[in-house]
Amino acid sequence: MADIAHIPPLSPASETLLRHYRSQVLTRRVYSVIGVALVVVALLAAMNYANAANSGKFFDRIPYLFDFLKNFVPNDPLEIFRAMFDIESPYYDGSLKFDYTSDRHYLTESLYIPNFVYQLIITVNIAVVSTIIGGSLAFCLCFFAATNLVGAGVVRWVVRRIMEVLRAFPEIVIAGLLTAVLSIGPIAAIAAVSLHTIGALGKLFFEVVENADMKPEEGLRSVGATRLERVRFAILPQVLPNFVSYTLLRTEINVRASTIIGAVGGGGIGEVFRLSIGRDHAAKTYAIVILLLVTIVCIDQFSGWLRRRLVGNQSFELGRGAA
Questions:
Q1: For residue 120, how many other CB atoms are within 10 A of its CB?
Q2: What is the pLDDT of residues 292-322, one digit of tens each?
Q3: How far apart are CA 88 and CA 112, in angstroms?
Q4: C-beta of residue 260 within 8 angstroms of C-beta of residue 172
Q5: 61: exposed, middle or buried (C-beta count within 10 Å: 0-12, 13-18, 19+)?
Q6: How far, in Å, are 4, 6, 7, 13 from residue 10 at the CA level?
Q7: Is the pLDDT of residue 145 over 90?
Q8: 171 forms bridges with which residues in the sheet?
Q9: Which fold has domain 112-322?
Q10: DSSP 3-state assignment of 78?
C-alpha cells in the first residue's frame, strides 16, 4: 500500500490517453451488449416464427425432442454388427427389417462384401474421384488467381469469379441440375461434387499462395528462371503441405456431400441410409452411421500421417513442446 501511495500523479498527456482508453473500452462494452441483445432478439423471433409455422406446437414438442432416438433402438445391440456385416439375424421373420443376407455382393461362392461396406466404397469412390478432379483443376487455377503471381489484372478477376460461381451453390443443388442431363446415379454426383470442390479448394489454394514468401521467387527471377520454374521451385515447396491438408479436409467434406447426394438418387450409402431410416430399420441405420464415423476418423488419421511425411515430425514436436 505504501508503494501505491507514492505513485506520482499522471501527466496531462497521460491523463488524456487514459481518459480516451476508458472511453473506448466503455464504447466497446456498450456495442457488445447491443450486439448480444440483437442476437437474442433475432433468436427469439426465429423461434416464434418456427412455433407459428409448426401450428403453435414447436415449444410444446421440445420436451419430446429425443423421443425418436429413445424409441429408435434395435432389439439387440449385436443386431447392429449383424446388419453391418450381413450376418443372419436370429430375429429374422421374413421381413426386410431383419433381412441382412439378401443384399450381399459375392466375390466367390463363399466370399462376399457386406452390402453397407459395398455402398460405402461407392460413396468414398465418388468423394475421392471428385476430390482428385476438383483438386487438380483448383491447383491449376489457383496460380492464376493469386495477386502476387499475376497481379490484379483481368485473368485474376475472371478466375476468381469462376470459382465464386462454382462454390455458390451446394452440391445437392448442382446434382439436381445435372440429373436432367446425366440422369440419376454416381456420374451426376461426381460432377456436382467436383464442380463445388473446384470453387472451394481454389479459394483456399490461392490464399495460401498469396501468403507465400516471395524472396525465393525473386531470387530465381534474377537468374533468368521462367514463370513455371519459379512456381515449381520457389512457391510450390512452401504451399504443398497446406495444399495436401486442405485437400484431405475436402475429402472428408466430400464423403459427407456424397452421402447426402446419394440420399436423393446419387447412389452409395446415402441411398440405403434414407431407405433404412424411412422404413424404421434401427439396426441398419446405426450400422451405417458407425461406418460413416469410422470412415471419417480413418481419413483424418491418414491426413495427419501424410502431413507428417511432408513437413516432418519436428513441426509436430515443436507444437507439442509449446503446449
A1: 22
A2: 899 888 888 887 787 777 766 665 565 455 4
A3: 14
A4: yes
A5: exposed
A6: 13, 12, 9, 8
A7: yes
A8: none
A9: MetI-like fold (1.10.3720)
A10: helix
Who contacts 59 (Cβ-Cβ below 8 Å, separation ≥6)?
A: 47, 51
Taking residues 14-19, report their average pLDDT: 81
Other Cβ atoms less than 10 A from the Cβ of 226: the count is 10
Contacts with 284 (C-beta within 8 Å, 6 or more apart), sequence order: 83, 97, 100, 116, 272, 276
| C-alpha cell recorded at residue 143 | 496460380
Q: Could you tell me the pTM of the whole model?
A: 0.77
Average pLDDT over residues 72-83: 86
Contact between residue 287 and residue 81 where contact means Cβ atoms under 8 Å apart: yes
Residue 314, Cβ neighbours under 10 Å: how many? 9
Residue ranges of domains in the chain: 12-68, 112-322
Contacts of 228 (CB under 8 A, 6+ apart): none
Q: What is the pLDDT at residue 322? A: 46
